[in-house]
Write a structure and sequence with these properties.
The chain is mostly helical. It has 4 helices and no strands.
Length: 171
């Protein structure tokens, strides 16, 4: 074991396989679709005849999900190599600083989406003390944003895995 490792145990070899990367991408897609399924399910139930209350999902409920989805797009548009890039490897100066700033903004969008969904849950559903079928609209919003955030992390990690099967072409 080399002395420059951070942890005592070595990284398992199966983490470097292309099948693990593919499974991670599919798992992230499943988490993303499951998250939006919860929210779309709550949105359709709120406007159905089976909803016994006068509370419906409005545009305010959609804003946290939109922020989380935009944050996911921003985060996954950045390559991991750009975070540690020096000025000689890419055109221009300050590439690493710019990439870190954009990555921070992406995580801020996702954190704002999750915090916004909790705020909507508390202010719109918990404070007025609505019963559970109506309370589910806010809970589904929080679950959806949490799953979108988790899928973004899984997708970014799985896309940026380094393995022996990637080829870097340099001119």
């Amino acid at each position: 074991m080399s002395s420059h490792r951070l942890f005592r145990f070595p990284k398992p070899a199966w983490l470097n396989s292309p099948n693990t990367r593919t499974a991670g991408v599919y798992f992230a897609g499943a988490l993303f679709s499951l998250g939006f399924f919860f929210f779309v399910d709550a949105a359709t139930f709120s406007h159905s005849d089976r909803n016994g209350s006068e509370v419906h999902i409005k545009f305010v409920d959609w804003i946290p999900g939109i922020c989380s989805a935009l944050g996911m797009l921003v985060i996954n548009s950045i390559e991991k190599t750009r975070l540690s890039a020096d000025s000689y490897s890419y055109s221009g100066t300050g590439v690493a600083w710019k990439a870190r700033l954009v990555l921070f903004l992406g995580f801020a969008l996702m954190a704002g989406g999750l915090a916004g969904s909790v705020a909507v849950l508390v202010l719109k559903y918990v404070v007025p003390e609505y019963p559970f079928p109506t309370l589910y609209f806010g809970i589904a919003n929080v679950i959806a944003n949490g799953l979108i955030m988790l899928s973004s992390v899984v997708l970014w990690v799985s896309q940026n895995m380094e393995d022996d099967y990637t080829y870097n072409l340099a001119l």
